[in-house]
Amino acid sequence: MSNILKRLETILQQRKQDDPAASYVASLYDKGLDTILKKIGEEATETVIAAKSGDKTQIIYETADLWFHSLVLLAQQDLSADDVLKELERRFGLSGLDEKANRTK
């Protein structure tokens, strides 16, 4: 896993103990899952808008926000980026059509 992902995960875990008035991430945790999910939805929409505009700098900026808030969700759910990377590794070399057909409902 990337060093930056490890560093972010460490900080995100630490923020669980922090004062919500002093930390943006702690305030997200304090407000709960619905607030975190709303942020992910907002960031996903902003990423789509940036991509439609074709502004590469904005696409990178908005994707970073989307990834960051996704990492907040993972930490809130006691999951890690490594869990997601393992799933991507499992899918590697597997046809996307086959993988989708094999998903359990």
Automatic annotation (TrEMBL):
Record's keyword annotation contains Ribonucleoprotein: no
UniProt GO molecular function: ATP binding; phosphoribosyl-ATP diphosphatase activity
Subcellular location as annotated: Cytoplasm
A cellular component annotation (GO) from this entry: cytoplasm
Domain of life: Bacteria
Any one GO biological process: L-histidine biosynthetic process
Enzyme Commission number(s): 3.6.1.31
InterPro entries, alphabetized: HisE, PRib-ATP_PPHydrolase-like
Swiss-Prot/TrEMBL catalytic activity: 1-(5-phospho-beta-D-ribosyl)-ATP + H2O = 1-(5-phospho-beta-D-ribosyl)-5'-AMP + diphosphate + H(+)
Main localization, broad class: cytoplasm
Pathway annotation: Amino-acid biosynthesis; L-histidine biosynthesis; L-histidine from 5-phospho-alpha-D-ribose 1-diphosphate: step 2/9
Keywords: Amino-acid biosynthesis, ATP-binding, Cytoplasm, Histidine biosynthesis, Hydrolase, Nucleotide-binding
Assigned protein family: Belongs to the PRA-PH family.
PANTHER family assigned: HISTIDINE BIOSYNTHESIS BIFUNCTIONAL PROTEIN, HISTIDINE BIOSYNTHESIS BIFUNCTIONAL PROTEIN HISIE
Name of the protein in question: Phosphoribosyl-ATP pyrophosphatase
Originating organism: Cycloclasticus zancles 78-ME
Gene: hisE
